[in-house]
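Hi all, long-time lurker, first post. I run a small reading group and we've been trying to get comfortable going from sequence to structure in the token notation. Rather than ask abstract questions, I figured I'd post a concrete chain and ask someone more experienced to write out its structure so we can walk through it together at our next meeting. Sequence below, copied exactly:
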Amino acid sequence: MEQERKETDRFTALDSEGNPYTILEFTEYLHVTTSSGRERVEGYKSYLTTDGRSVNRLEELGSEYDFEIVDRPKVRLKRDS
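-- Answer (accepted) --
Happy to help. Here is the structure in token form:
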């Protein structure tokens, strides 16, 4: 099984003080062989800041923040619209 990782989105997110961070979204793709032939299947997404810091996507219902920088857990980010 072959894997491929591609940047699929790039956007700005702001911390509570309004400081901007550029977030890169990467998607893993798997190339699999099925009975109908070779297919590319979308896998999981991962997020990084442009300076290489890992970012977690928060899925807390009602949270005002969408993301959190992993090595700086007090830095939570809201995607800028």
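A couple of things your group might point at:
Strands lie at 2-14, 20-34, 37-49, 54-57, 67-69, 76-79.
The CA atoms of residues 65 and 78 lie 5 Å apart.
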